[in-house]
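Researcher: Here's the sequence for the chain we discussed earlier.
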Amino acid sequence: MKLIGTTSSPYVRKVRIVMAEKKLDYQFEIDNVWAADAAASPASPLGKVPRLQIEGHESPLFDSRVIVEYLDTLSPVGKLLPPSGRERADVKTWEALADGLLDAGVLARLEATWPGRSEGERSQAWIDRQMGKVDASLQAMAKALGDKPFCCGIHMSLADIATGCALGWLEFRFPELSWRDDHPNLARLADKLAQRPSFKDTLPA
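Model: Thanks. This is the structure I predict for it:
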């Protein structure tokens, strides 16, 4: 398998961590979709990463949620998703919340930094709206986590990987945010996950 992405993308990091936890072998190919000469292609119609190219299949898988769900079926090692029912839905809801936080954060950062906009074209109101979603997501995460050791109980799951990637990206791109002070239970979870080799080996850069 070949994973196509960047080392700074939290969505790509989520897939890389799942690969590591599942002990799956793959090649990692860098593709900066924000480069000036980058363009959509048949292999990447949305112009996004990650993409997973599977030997024997012409079309890659894309969207991190699709990819990690597929990867969890490839090996019984370290199952990250419950097979069905409410437990599975709870894990996927955590993943959706973490990815939604990232979506909002990415939109805010692009509005503030994308070179395709001039200073006069940037909207602080839009940035504030997106950062409001980030704050609301952090509050929802902290409330749902409570005093549990992991997002969905006593074992690590995809919920924790997605959440850890979201929190790590916030530290990487928005170091000025005080989420650690505001939500110490999320900080404890992030610190615990950061000790795992899969997280250590995939730090954003």
